[in-house]
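Worked example 4.2. Below are the chains of a multi-component assembly; read each line carefully before continuing.
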Amino acid sequence: MGLKSTFLFLVLGAFIAVIYNACSPMESAQDSVSSSLSQVGEVDPDLSKATFASTLYPVLRNNCAQCHGVNQNPRFAVEDVNSAFSTVESRSLVNLSQPNQSQIYLKVSGGHQNFPVPVIDEILLQIQTWSRTVITSIPETPAEPITFDAAEPSSVLSKIKNLTQGGSLTPTEWSVLQKPNLDSRDLEQLARTWIDSAEGQAKLGAYLRVLLHQSVSLDQDSDELFNSVRDKTFEATLQESFVRTALDLIKRNRPFHEIATTRRFAVNSVILSAHAWMETDYPRTMRTAFRDHLRSSLVTPADYNDWRFVTFDDQVATPVAQAFSDMNHWRSINDGAVLKFAIPRVGYFSTIAFQAEYPTNADNQFRVTINQAMIAGLGRSYNPSDNTPQPLEVGIPLSHSEKGTQCYACHRLMDPMRMPFGFKMTYDYKLGRSFQENMGSFAFNNFNAPLSSVGDIGSSIANHPDFAQAWVQKMCEILNTKKCQINDPIFMSIVNDFKTSGFNFKEMYTKLVTSPLITGAEETMTSLQQGFDVARQRREHFCHNLQVRINQVREARGFPALPFDGGLTLCAIRNVSIPADALGDDLNVRGGESVVNSFPSDAFSSQAIERVCTSLAAQWVERDREFDPFNLSIDENLKIMTELLVGLPSGHPRHAPMLAALKETYNYGMQSKALGARNALRHSAILACQSPEIQGVGL
Amino acid sequence: MKKRNSLSRRELILCALNASGGLALKSLVTGLPISFLTRRAMAADGDSYLVYSAQRAGDPVNCNVPGTYMTGFSHPTIWETAIPVNFGNQSYQCAEIWQSLLPAIRMNTNIFHLRTNTNGHGELDTVMNIFGSIKPVTGRAPEMLPSIISHLLSQAQGTTLRTPIAMSGVLTFEGNNQKIYTPNSLRGLFPSTVSVVDMDMRQYRDQQLDLVYADVKQNGTSAQKRFIDNYAKSRADAQKLGTELGVALSTVTGSGEEQQVRTAAALLALKVTPVATVGIGFGGDNHADSGLTQETTRHTSGISVLNTLYQSLASYGIHDKTTFAMLNVFGRTPNINSRGGRDHHGDSSIMLSFGPRVKGGVVGGLVVGGNRNRPQAQGINSVTGAIASPNINANETLHSAAKSLMVACGISEQQADQWVVGGKVVGAYTT
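Applying the procedure described above to all two chains together yields the following structure tokens:
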């Protein structure tokens, strides 16, 4: 076969693959119900059916019949045009009053089953033609048009630093904008520096904590694991363990998909003690033993800070020998040690934090565990229309085993995938046996593999074809507060680079955060589809950024930096914690595929900011503190406030107006309200803290 | 000698009640000072508000209502035998517990049988945006039902916020996830007293901020302009609320269901928002509910919370302007599973609602069928509300409930049809 023939063969093969995937399962029938043909005025049903037959139907028939013309619901591409029309109508797949809101179009407009759909424009065109033919007057759409303007380079630079490190631009960084040919390599170079900084690593850690579903909240749901331990220090150390693990993988340039397979975990003595507790069978009379242990003098603050890396080896059947309370033993475990624990500890989904956040029980039987593992690792939950063959149908309960039902459609995938969890763990995630069978089978979105251990689950996630795309999307969502369009060429290019780089996370992060998808430097398919927003800063990043900037102020004042804790202390001070709690936060909702991270500008958020900033200003403006009206001139105070707290370097177009506003506020307080210098300067600090430069992402 | 003009304590209270036109009683109910209740003209005539409850857990609220005493349904032992209970002007066979819903509420309480066609907890957002059939206000993401109602009512009524205030579940508005506030966090935000100097300085700071960003408002990108506009408005709104909300919420302690509905009543009465979302349970995720004890207990507490809501609304004088609706992700199975509880059931759910324009009674109904031979919600006749001669497909009962609720909230049928694609307004649902 010649080169030309080979090329044609490959092209043809790729085309067939794309068509096939374009026709892979739609969402369930329920997902498709959205609109009704009968609701678009007086439509002649015969005319509508005839028009369907000559417009949309041929496109569906030619491109989707392989699945939706045979046995895949909804069957809108079957041979009988009447039946196809009936399906489209009864499932409300088309919206003739707003063709671009048709479910059949929206479903595939961002790609279908992770593949672009080459006939997407044709589908919309045919629905529009159908609509024009049968509807004499289409109601005016209430939706406002989407507009886009490219962001200025200064906004681009500020946003990248805001997202990756949190600090104010330094004069040197600002001067980059003066370069005649500023290009993406300059931005990437700066981004790398910011990402590598301690503050940048803390910020990335905050992203990963949410994306890897490690942000456990010890509450009544986790009581069965730790017997009513509601200790915030313990909670924080559980959260931190795998974040440190993932950051270490990134730092060592390990392939990022090792987050699902690594057995090398960052631990401290308290974490090791907790792992031992999970392996030890205590009578019910001693259910509070671990809580009592944490509160005892056996555990010291140093036990929360002696981080090191150990490797868990679960090739043993018996529980770890040492008592959980033997802190001297756990302190003696060295960095690099291999520890024999019976409970499998593999990847992000077998951490104590993950298990405590997603408790299971005799009803649920590890279904939540496997579902959340898929959401955290691959960005999606089980879908009843996923027709991936399941080679081994084990563990599916009779009550859900009726083939053809929606319940069965998910359980046939999910239940065999959870089997290994139950072989070595009780429903409290402690050492024990819930299932007698270890053998299971992984089948999820066009990928399957046999399972005989928890490690196999991790390997399947790591090797899943969706892994790269899922993680670019997850990062896009947390940086932009909205998902990217998966068929956006820039997005696809970053996904491809991520794969070919061997899952080099840092490079992917750098490319993504400096791309127009995030910066808004130019219009993208994503912004064209869903607009582009300046997002409101979320609580954790507001607190983080303020701490970075306050340390910049302290450095300028010659004060030692405050120990960096991501702003936790800053936002947890008395009188600040409650209003700060009312600010938006990044969080996962059980079963939700998206991080909940959008934060509106409303009266409540502004009131929260008002109170937080008032409290913070009272701390900052004081003798011998960051802003000091007694030992530093007011002009000097205000200059530092403008450049290092607000983050407007000299030369920025808003530098002078901001400086003037801070000065006016100070003068008004002094002259009109007879406030003393300290109180007047506090009002300037409140203004600075409330400035959109700090409250927004992308000004 | 005893003075004739002395008043007993009881007489004093009665006298005060008469003198204040019942304000003292309202004050007792709400815990607010009389001065607060007299200070502000709150909701205006013609205003309309909504308290919306949605549970991700799915809930057996559908299992003991009128229409469920039929073949295929199991009930808690104490409610195995139905009794007649009036909803509107008609009597219906249902669990005795519904008798404890205040008669004034039951007069305008409707049970709307529908299908959500969902089986997963994660599908609550899909149910709330009626399977994507509510058109977006901006962008492409469909609105959720409480959000579109809030958008439309706020335009007409001039509330401080356009967005609903969410205290439970999930909520998006214009495609953006909304913060879920607890009553406690709302209370913590608004102090009940602020000094005049602080208020004046705050106003001055806001003016200065506006000056700094005047150039962005003029020359920034459209995204930046939107942000600056919204941010400026949000600061102005926060000032407008002033201390009134702080006073109103000063008696709220905790974040439970009772506190949510009391907070909701205060937010609506102060015209902060036209819509507040809460989460009221009638049994929750009760797969393993041996003896249906959880269902029994939570039905009792759920109805008590509804009574509290009505009393709170009445204390603010907005009970005749406020509609309540409960629409969960799915109902729960009529039959009891092997663990004594109920599983997910997308074929049968209800919209439980009451309000001034809601006609007391039942819309729709159940018939045994489907591949499991279980009671399923049926199609509905849009005029009579009965299942005979249906012109609404069973799969569009959810859409129809949404549209009917919009009309009950004072939105025109034309607007409901414009914003929600699919389903029909049920004439028998509204007065």
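Take a moment to check your reading of the output against the notes. The first strand of chain A starts at residue 264 and ends at 267. The beta strands of chain A are 264-267, 308-313, 338-340, 440-443, 448-451, 535-536, 696-697.
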